Amino acid sequence: MEQRIEPQSGSAFILKRGQRLKVIDPMGQQVSDMVLFNAHDIKEKISSGKTLDFEENLLITNGNYLWSNRSNKMMKIIQDTNGRNDFLLAPCSPETFKIMYNHNSYHPSCFENLIKNLSKYEIEADDIPTAFNIFMNVQFKDTGELTVKPPLSSAGDYVVFEALMDLVVGLTACSAEMSNGGSFKPIDYHIIN
Amino acid sequence: MEQRIEPQSGSAFILKRGQRLKVIDPMGQQVSDMVLFNAHDIKEKISSGKTLDFEENLLITNGNYLWSNRSNKMMKIIQDTNGRNDFLLAPCSPETFKIMYNHNSYHPSCFENLIKNLSKYEIEADDIPTAFNIFMNVQFKDTGELTVKPPLSSAGDYVVFEALMDLVVGLTACSAEMSNGGSFKPIDYHIIN
After folding, report:
1. How far is the C-alpha of A162 from the C-alpha of A141, rounded, in Å?
2. Partners of B156 in beta bridges
3. Cβ neighbour number for residue A83 with a 10 Å cutoff
4. Under DSSP, is residue B101 helix (H, G, I), strand (E, B) or coil?
5. Other CB atoms closer than 10 Å to residue B60's CB: what's the count?
6. Who's near A119: CB < 8 A, 6+ residues apart?
7. Can you give the residue ranges of the DUF1989 domain (chains A, B) (predicted)?
8. Residues contacting residue A54 through CB under 8 Å, at least 6 positions apart
9. Would you say residue B84 has pLDDT above 90?
10. DSSP single-letter state for residue A179
11. ipTM for the assembly
12. How far, in Å, CA of A20 to CA of A22, rounded?
């Protein structure tokens, strides 16, 4: 059954080894930050550094694996109808809006939404790693310059992940204006047995 | 006084706020992996995701800051005579040599050398984040493809960092053939008050 993550919010759930997770952008141009933990030992978690190293590519998509800090495969990407994701940038946090966007009042963020939803698994703020940012469109130049552009995803684009171990998954509908083409939309997901 | 890190080994030490750390490649083409922790609370540590986000660049060099997972500045880069460093790839670990290089017997690694030296500060394997890889030359293509090339550093090249908080620093002379032009050399460092 399809679940909806409302705009600027998040979810956390168990995904068993062998189950598949389909993450859908129902309206287009909406990012979803995903973090992963070993369900039996939350000190093992998704690692950008290990994934970029083993996959030898900045752009992680169909056919690539998501690796843990302990060099184990956590997920395989089975389908990716959009093809552009980011694994460089940390989840947007209260400080992102203050430091990068000079926004001084309260602003929802992926970081807060991850903590709020993952707390039931005893995962705390300092445990949150760099997320795999589904549909996020971060462009890089030869000079290394990074620019956050609107996602290339259209309504209905999706990515399917297969779990290679029992996982705790944290998932958001991203809260940052810059990352989502200026408006906040929901994210849908579906666990397939 | 200059300290020497012997080939394929590591070191860990305290760097006080305001002190500077000079990391020198004495023979050329030698990488040094560096990790940072808040000396008063080791759950705060260097973050690739936060640094790439706030600095808006893949190539971190002179003038850039190294940020923590809590969005605080840990260090500023004051001088960089080489100019090429990496902040994408995880420290080489026993699994790196097994998975990427089909090397099945014991091989020294930055990961092991970091753990060994940081254990006196009660920092454990799972606490080690993606390191700032000084002098490491990781090339990226428009397609995202990553290639580890020999460092561009010549004998005597150095990077100077200023500590912006009291830090525990872990530092290595990297153990991976591919990252160091095929031979293992020492790394020198110097704490400047």
Report:
1. 32
2. none
3. 13
4. coil
5. 23
6. none
7. 4-168
8. A65, A67, A71, B99, B100
9. yes
10. G
11. 0.97
12. 7
- Token output for B63: 């003038």
Q: Is there a contact between B130 and A93 if contact means CB atoms under 8 Å apart? A: no
Tokens linked to A48 = 């950008």
With CA atoms as reference, report the closest residue to A140 among A182, A179, A99, A86: A86
Tokens of A193: 């047995």
With tokens 């110097």, the residue in question is B190
Residue of B nearest to A44 (CA): B126
Best probe of the B interface among A48, A60, A97, A138, by most B CBs < 10 A, is A48
Q: Minimal CA–CA distance to B72: which of B102, B95, B44, B96?
A: B44
* Torsion sign, CA atoms B72, B74, B78, B81: negative
Sort out which chain A residues have CB atoms less than 8 A from B86's CB and list them.
none
Which structure tokens are listed for A24?
């859908």
CA distance A37 to B112: 22
Q: Where are the domains of chain A?
A: 2-192
Mean pLDDT across B124-129: 97
The alpha carbons of chain A give a radius of gyration, in whole angstroms, of: 15
How far apart, in whole angstroms, are the C-alpha atoms of residue B158 and residue B15? 17
From B163, B89, B142, select the one nearest A130 (Cα to Cα).
B89
Residue A44 in tokens: 């093992």
- pLDDT tens digit string along A115-154? 999 999 999 999 999 999 999 999 999 999 999 999 999 9
Query: What 3-state DSSP class applies to B60?
Result: coil
